[in-house]
Amino acid sequence: MASSQQDVLAPEPVPPARIVSKNEKLPLLTKVPSIISQCTILNDFTDEAFTAIVRNVERAIEDNTLPDRIAQGSSGSYFAKDVNKEIVGVFKPRDEEPYGASNPKWTKWLQKHCCPCTFGRGCLVPNLGYLSEAGASIVDERLSLGIVPTTKVVYLASDSFHYSTFEKASTSARRKLPSRIRRHVKTGLPMKEGSFQLFVKGYRDAEHWLRQFDSEPLDSNLAHDFQLLFEKLVCLDYIIRNTDRGNDNWLIRYERARSSSIDDPEDVQNNTTTTTSELDAAADEEATDFCVVSHGTIRVAAIDNGLAFPFKHPDSWRAFPYHWAWLPQAKKPFSKETIDLVLPQISSHTFVENLVEDLQTLFKMDSSYTPILFQQQMSVMRGQMLNLEKAFRDRMSPWQLVHLASCTVDRDSAATGDAKIHMRTPFFSFC
What we know:
The chain is of the alpha+beta class. It contains 14 helices and 13 strands. The strands form four sheets. Strands 1-2-3-5-4 form a five-stranded antiparallel beta sheet, with helices on both faces. A three-stranded antiparallel beta sheet has the order 6-7-11. The chain has a three-stranded antiparallel beta sheet with strand order 8-10-9.
């Protein structure tokens, strides 16, 4: 009786106080940021000039100034324009590479399905061309070569890119939703990651100018400058083991020397872009004309670096040679200027490992990154640096360099310099 009375008189438990979340009163559906806002979050670089160019391209796409697909090449690549409709960069999406699922070039699709034995390069990791482009820019910057236009990984979305039928249909359906719903739904096309390389103006493919130089040789000063630039190209291609370097995918900008007469001698002193070369006597003794000579200039740009950084040396059917090896510039020994620039860096273990860390940070951006394959890629690169160091010390020529035995250097052997000689050679050595 007592126990039952206690049960009746026992107070009921008080429920705990309800904690109200700060976000509880927020709407379930929020406005989705625009495409340009999403790109701004992703495309954030320490290089302010490069960032400004990418921002300009994003605004141009918002204003319906879309990138134009480049007809040449085996992958989907696009000329990116700014708000003034001028070409400022080349964008190469990851999924539109030669091995990508959205490659718009039907010839590669036909080759892949009808001739699979001739498709692809067995020494390269598929679908990493965009990282190879950016990696070449890192190597160029660290070695102070200055021949690769700045290249970074960028995210863009545009109606002119090649999307699947499903992506286009779903995007079209979302855009037809009522405005009150559409503002809460992502209506734009999916953003594509790819390499964005700054566009260089005034350049032509090397094949054009090399034919010109055969008939119209450069003067001694320009020939020396061109030799130094050529050697920088050799160093870059050899270190990253570029498997696609022909004379049609590196560029030359050549401006011939020009002379002009200036009536006022003071204009010569005020002109900072030309130098006074000689003073000609005028027929009229009352006037004197100054002849201002603008010395010619020559520049080199190494583009199309997407088929580099192999995880093994070519050893099956094709050798993928460097086509510059047959040029007369390749028969000359490396110059002292090039050796002094590159040798102290590639012979430094600290420099090489710092470069490897930079490349690893880049390659980790890809979802298919695997440490084993990356270390194999770096073993090939270290072996290439070891051969290049030997060529510098023995004063070899680029032609002699490419005939050295291929080797790899593992991470554990990098400090001691122990190399593993690669003995297998491809069946065809000329292609």
